Amino acid sequence: MSESPTTAIDIAAAVRDGRVTAAEVVETHLAAIDAREAELHACNAVLADEARAAAGRGDAARAAGATLGPLAGVPVALKDNMCTRGIPTTCSSKILEGWRPPYDATVVTKLQEAGAIVIAKTNLDEFAMGSSTENSAFGPTKNPHDVTKVPGGSSGGSAVAVAAGFAPISLGSDTGGSIRQPAALCGVVGLKPTYGTVSRYGLIAFASSLDQIGPFGATIADAAATYNVIAGHDPRDSTSYAGAMATIGAAELAGDVSGMRVGIISELVGAEGIADDVKRRFTEAADALSAAGAKVEETSVPACVYGLSAYYLIAPAEASSNLARYDGVRYGLRIEADNITDMYTQTRTAGFGPEVKRRIMLGTYALSAGYYDAYYGKALKVRSLIARDFAAAYEKFDVLLSPTAPTTAFGFGAKTDNPLAMYLSDVCTIPSNLCGDPAISVPFGTGDDGLPVGVQVLAPALGEPALFRAAAALEGSAP
Amino acid sequence: MTLPDGWVMVIGLEVHCELKTATKLFCGCPNMFGDEPNTNICPTCLGLPGSLPVLNENAVELAMRIGAALNCDILASTFHRKNYFYPDMPKDYQVSQYDEPINLNGRLDLPDGFRVGVTRAHIEEDTGKSTHVGGDGRIHGATHSLVDYNRSGVPLVEIVSEPDMRTADQARAYVTELRAILVATGASDGRMEEGSMRVDANISVRRSETDEFGTRCEIKNVNSIRSLGRAIEYEAARQVGLIEAGDRVIQQTRHWNEQQGRTITGRVKEDADDYRYFLEPDLVPLDPSPEWIASVRSELAVLPATRREAVAAATGADASATAVATVVDLELDQLVLGAVAAGADGRIALARASNEVAADAEGGRGLDVAAFTAVIAMESASEITATQAKTVLGELLADGGGDPEAIAAKHGFEAMDGSVLDSVVDKVIAANPNEWQRYKDGDAKVTGFFVGQVMKATGGKADGKAVTAALVARTKA
Ligand SMILES: [Zn+2]
After folding, report:
1. Fewer C-beta within 10 Å: chain B N or C terminus?
2. In chain A, what residues touch B283 (CB-CB under 8 Å)?
3. Is B266 part of any domain?
């Protein structure tokens, strides 16, 4: 073996051709984890034994002449809010400590059927609520480019796993930017697919109408290959899209954007707190697309500015209901008490961290009699206005463009005392979740501090082909 | 028990019925009553993290049948989450239909023609079942609780009536009729004792001169139609008593205590419960196609009211007669209709079906119509007496069939000659002069004595009605 492959596509090809074994691939990545995990804390669990066993089975299958899948021998890291049978799944919360799901999430099954090998469960902000991975009950994850900086969140562990070479690909979940924002801060590709294209069965819910699983990869092609594997109708998920979904192939990955209509969302580029160095990189990215033949124009998506406010009512409202089940009765943490009400209260008081409690309270309030219309009800109206404005924009444009995150990676503790400042990290990513549309963050150079900057491409529902086309063009022209 | 003059009771009923589906509402677990606890469970009906609901199409079909049978509009609908904490509810919210239920604006006509409005009939999931150990069986004060989630996620339809009923009898008739409809349509087995049908009653009272409703109380834990009547009458009287004593009724949930025969305070509802309803994001709107709705309506089983009318028309009985209701409830109406169509006397066929055959309804449903017709024909032609006809029917049912004429011949049954009967009657009267005097004085209770004596003397071959007629004739002599 001359040079060991690093991308998922190259690894799978090499494993299929017999140039490398899955066992060798797994050992290489376990060594990478060994080298930096203590420093970065990307993983809640490293599944060395399980990964070695899976690699052994894969290699044996190849030896027996079996046809190998598109991700044969490819290690994958899973955000620790996706159920893995018999393996602890914690959501980085004390309340789920010790719980082992009796079933696999659909995405896990699909990855394994494609030959991928689950190598780690990664750290996250507790129940995916946060933008820095500082809200994990098990301690924060560090940015591999500068360990004094956050990796973003909530899928910080999965972004770091790819950025640090623990696995060529990983899965995260994105409710308001939880894949794209850490992808930007860690310098990797992160995709939030169209709502309904990837099954949520086995994804522990934060906000069901917004949650979507998606891939991280070091390259656009790896993100696309992973998306191709995990997308598809799932009868176990009633919100799963039942129609035909595009497979991303060579045509899209060639990145030909000549004639493509690209709109720059002026409200997001001009949003509060977008740093100058991020803006500069963003302008370069827009210019690069223009140079590649795209027709790039500024455009307005007016309701977009209300996205953050609507999101911080809708997501907590759904969360307050989704997280009710952690009551100490059936699984996870239980603090014994004299009566059921005290048991509930003490269990939930001990089991949930401050951000989760904040959002449960916010959501409970927003749904309460007498407040529903003013808060939750109004947020739903704003949500439909945003969708309407995006639909109008997509009549004129094939894709839209914005920065992914307002700044490069920030320091630990910089925003933990000010939840609103932290919430602003997601101002550019939230609108896609409210609309159910796909969006991707593509690394595009660095900021003044030398840390990665991401550019976001947005597309209408099921617009993944155009999305990948533009993303590939950006990847090809990134500094 | 009735209310004092000048008072009116107002009753609305909420009936929960479990649908007779093979599997649960949102997962593939068996919908089975009485299995070993926590054996029919999966991630979804246990509400495990990451699990998702998928709506059972058959449950929707059965819910639509209920809507069709109750003359509801069957509409596009949605599901909401009703949020509250309870240990037998694994997600700590119940998925239920809220402001857009599948069935709206129906009605149910009682056998006597009284019409009760049906506000809605919506789909929801059942909870698990808690057993509280220690204390008085309630959750508070228990040392520990056991929860069985086999029932968790079983499909329910909640049928909400308008507050149209004014007497306990109407409420009983409503539940009886509703139950018959649920069974006839195959939507539910309607077993109150097993909890597959549960009735909550909303009761208020008002003075008859006003139209304004009083404060209502909701009565839960009513386990039979008989208890429902008792509970309603008790509760209405309690409320009248309170108001007449210058007190007021406090809106609350009350539990019926069957042993004590009274309702007991449950939760006081001074403030409305806040269930924080919101649209269930894990499900999509339910929008049955017009073709589906039309096929449910057209394939609906013939309803009990229509079947009662058919029996009434065939037998000359009143459609609201108990015998008519009995044969329909026990599904013996086809037996009666078949016999009448074959020429049997309708009155006698109905009488035998609603009594002797009803006593062994299962056997009766398998009874050969021709054999039943032959028995009725022999009786109506006075070839055998009523008593003998009952004996022949009894043997047919016990043996699962047979030749009625052969059975009658085996027993030597034949209608007694009138002159023989007359002489026996005369002998019995002569032997019992004191009883005969009482009979002549109008003491109806001794009729049975004389009939019995004549039967004894004739070895059961006399016709009871003929004996009575002979006795009456002699009082006039
Ligand atoms: Zn189940």
Report:
1. C
2. 238-239
3. yes
Q: How far apart are CA A284 and CA A278, in angstroms?
A: 10
Closest-CA distance of chain B to residue A385, Å: 18
**Within its chain, how far is the Cα of B216 from the centroid?**
25
Contact between chains at A376 and B278 (C-beta distance less than 8 A): yes
Asked if A96 and B49 come within 8 Å (Cβ–Cβ), the reply is: yes
Out of B46, B272, B284, the one facing A238 most closely (by C-beta) is: B284
A329 touches B at CB < 8 Å: yes
ipTM score: 0.96
CA of B32 to the centre of ligand 1 (A): 12
What residues in A contact B45, CB-CB < 8 Å? none
CB < 8 Å to A321, chain B:
81, 83, 93, 276, 278
The catalytic residue positions of A are 79, 154, 178
Query: And the tokens for A295?
Result: 């027709």
Q: Which two tokens stand for residue A73?
A: 């021998």
pLDDT in tens, chain B (477 residues): 578 889 999 999 999 999 999 999 999 999 998 899 999 999 999 999 999 999 999 999 999 999 999 999 999 999 999 999 999 999 999 999 999 999 999 999 998 899 999 999 999 999 999 888 877 767 667 788 899 999 999 999 999 999 999 999 999 999 999 999 999 999 999 998 888 999 999 999 999 888 888 999 999 989 899 999 999 999 999 999 999 999 999 999 999 998 999 999 876 654 557 999 999 999 999 999 999 999 999 999 999 999 999 999 999 999 989 999 999 989 999 999 999 999 999 999 999 999 999 999 999 999 999 999 999 999 888 888 888 899 999 999 998 888 998 898 888 787 666 777 888 888 899 999 999 989 888 888 888 888 888 888 877 777 777 888 888 888 876
Interface residue A205 vs chain B (CB under 8 A): yes
Domain end residue (candidates: B271, B298, B325)? B298
What phi, psi does A80 have (nearest 5°)? Answer: -80, 30
What count of CB pairs under 8 Å joins A to B? 99
Q: What is the DSSP string of B26-85?
A: SSSSB--SSPSTT-S--TTTTT-TT------HHHHHHHHHHHHHTTPEE--B--EEEE--
In this structure, what token pair is assigned to residue A340? 């059921």
Nearest to B45 by CA among B127, B123, B125, B152: B152
Indicate which CATH number applies to the domain containing A155. Answer: 3.90.1300.10
Residue B179 belongs to what domain range? 7-298
CA of B91 relative to ligand 1 center, distance in Å: 13
Enclosing domain of residue A77? 8-251
